[in-house]
Amino acid sequence: MGTRMCGGEPAVRKGPWTLEEDLILVSYISQNGEGSWDNLARSAGLNRNGKSCRLRWLNYLRPGVRRGSITPEEDMVIRELHSRWGNRWSKIAKHLPGRTDNEIKNYWRTKIHRKPRGRSQLQEPCEDAMGMGMSTSEAASTSASSSQSQASSTVWDEYMQASSLPHPELASFAADHHLEMAGVDEVAAAAAQFVPTEFGFNDGFWNFVDNFWETMPVSDMV
DNA sequence: AACTTATTCAACCGCATAATG
DNA sequence: ACATTATGCGGTTGAATAAGT
Description:
- Its main location: nucleus.
- The chain is mainly α.
- The protein has 11 helices and 2 strands; from the N terminus they run ββααααααααααα.
């Protein structure tokens, strides 16, 4: 996989992103902003198509993207919103700060609405993740995914040291994640005090978000 | 230890819609 | 009004790895 050759011409790269590509993409966007993805890919010198760049940025490299296990509160929100909207992953993701549609979709498929793949279908019935005690596979997944997600964190480590990026505006964060949520202004204002000056959000911010879910009934959200 | 099966999740694909000329 | 291009979304796949035998 990865690069495919086509009549000797180097094809547009596919497959997993390398550290170098991540760095190129991040530093390019930090200087020129996101959008115009096809053009961005060309201008940045990335041998990728625009869609691939967009996906990589939105799901993994963008500041504020939250990694790690889905919390019980998030699980609850996902279930509630899915019951209301169905597979509207991006819409659901807007109500889960830092989570992406892709991540929620994967979570739903693998943890909530488990549909066995592969040969043996006679596996255990849909185990309900409501138990929330993360199953053994959950714990395993953290280490399983480490190889790839670790690449991203390494990128950030290097990037943080090498660049002096302006801090992303909280407003844009709120716009990205809370747009349709009731009380967005209050959330943004209250969360602002936790936002550190460096790139990214600190624990206080996420604690705030977690607490927010406890106090904000799902039914209050648009 | 070697092999098989199950699981996870990053990334791709195709389609729909929006934006632009 | 139409054609073309860009963007966004949801479904699906496949490599990597864990778990089981």
